[in-house]
Write a structure and sequence with these properties.
Rossmann fold; five-stranded parallel sheet; alpha/beta; three-stranded antiparallel sheet
């Protein structure tokens, strides 16, 4: 990007897809304090101004008012003196967006239910197959939610979320053993590989889950846990990885010796937090473990649900 390049208002309009009248309006409302003018009096837009216009459109989509965006522009013109105000503004915008996402997830849940309702009714040739059913009652009773709504459930204040590590928080990568981040080998070679290479040192986190954990921590930092099967030689690397990349407190990281112990840990959490089991969500990549958690009354989420986040 050539930061010295400037654009006319028409060029800026074509770059961003905004009418020139809208750009002039933004400028008059104080949203573009850095825009300069040529000797001819016409506005000229720098790359930074183009980026600001894109940001304005983004903030408008979050529901932010023009006056509040103008205030942000004023803060931006103050430089480092306004870093705190700008950070707080974006934290508030994130909370607003998460609220919008939760509302949309709930709406999508109902629409998907209705799609299923009519598909099954058509297959049966009658709505009578759904006699006595109630969407609203099923949600009130804590019935298993479809994956489309699970992110909404996890963001609710009373919900506790427990993440697996391997294949969930830590990405599995395949390829040459010497490549940084490689974490796949034969089971019988795993201990030697961990001791010699420390795969968790170079393992990559999942950005979508990092964003979720940060947002959830804003609501209740004590409501996010990690639980993983680990032997003694694996535990230090796993713990360090989770703390380093997800800022989950050490006390909230639990290592167990076998997969069945994960269910026991969920039961322990439910008892300690005096929580309904459906308000504890296990995030896993192993369907067998998810099935066991569901059978024990806990909510479950396959890691691929974060493709929606």
């Amino acid at each position: 990007m050539d930061e010295r390049k400037t654009y006319s208002i028409k060029e800026a309009s074509e770059l961003i897809g905004l009418p020139t009248s809208t750009i002039r309006y933004y400028d008059k409302q104080g949203l573009l304090p850095f825009v300069t003018r040529r000797e001819s009096g016409y506005r000229q837009f720098s790359e930074a101004d183009i980026d600001m216009l894109r940001l304005i459109e983004c903030l408008k989509r979050t529901g932010m008012s023009i006056s509040d965006i103008a205030e942000f522009s004023r803060w931006a013109s103050m430089g480092d003196a306004s870093l705190e105000q700008r950070r707080e503004m974006f934290l508030e915008r994130r909370r607003a967006i998460l609220g919008q996402m939760a509302d949309l997830a709930a709406t999508l849940d109902l629409v998907q239910y209705k799609c299923w309702y009519y598909e099954t009714a058509l297959a049966a040739g009658t709505e009578a197959v759904h006699a006595g059913e109630s969407y609203w009652q099923s949600r009130k009773d804590g019935a298993a939610r479809p994956q489309s709504a699970i992110l909404q459930l996890m963001m609710e204040p009373e919900t506790t979320v427990v993440f697996d590590v391997d294949g969930v928080l830590a990405v599995y990568e395949f390829g040459p053993a010497e490549r940084p981040g490689h974490s796949a080998c034969c089971d019988e070679d795993w201990e030697t590989y961990v001791r010699e290479n420390d795969p968790y040192e170079n393992a990559r986190p999942v950005a979508a889950i990092q964003r979720f954990v940060a947002a959830k921590a804003e609501i209740d930092p004590s409501s996010v846990f990690a639980c993983s099967v680990a032997d003694d030689y694996e535990e230090p690397g796993k713990r360090a990885f989770v703390e380093r990349h997800y800022a989950i407190p050490g006390d909230n990281i639990q290592m167990v010796r076998k997969k069945d112990d994960k269910i026991a840990f969920l039961e322990h959490l439910a008892a300690c937090r005096h929580a309904n089991r459906r308000d504890i969500v296990l995030v896993e990549d192993t369907t067998k473990t998810l099935d066991a958690a569901d059978a024990a009354g806990f909510s479950t989420c396959h890691v691929t649900s974060f493709f929606l986040y």
